[in-house]
Amino acid sequence: MQPSASKVIDDNLEQLGGFYQLGVYREKAFIKNMEDKIGESDEKIVVLITGGFHTPGITSRLKDEGYSYVVVAPAVTKKSDSRLYFSVLRGKKSHLEEALNVENR
Q1: Residues near 34 by Cβ (< 8 Å), separated by ≥ 6?
Q2: What is the pLDDT of residues 34-85, one digit of tens each?
Q3: Which of 27, 28, 40, 96 could disulfide-link 57, Cβ–Cβ 3.0 to 4.6 Å?
């Protein structure tokens, strides 16, 4: 028997592939922008902040380019509310932002 999510994945495989391909393009842009900024200054140490989704791709690219790097990540001890994450991706205000009448940026 096929898992219920499998049909959803199968029906949307092209869109999912596009989502991950965009992630790869963004990682390339992160590295290019970082290198451009390094080229504009004499700095030897830089900080590149990304979401955890990009960690494997970014660290692989940094290693391939010969950069030394350190990954700093929070210790996640419990599952968060995924609705908050997806509302941020959609540009929607969180309940706290709505209560405080905070403008989206």
Answers
A1: 46, 48
A2: 999 989 998 888 898 888 889 999 999 999 999 999 999 888 788 877 777 7
A3: 27
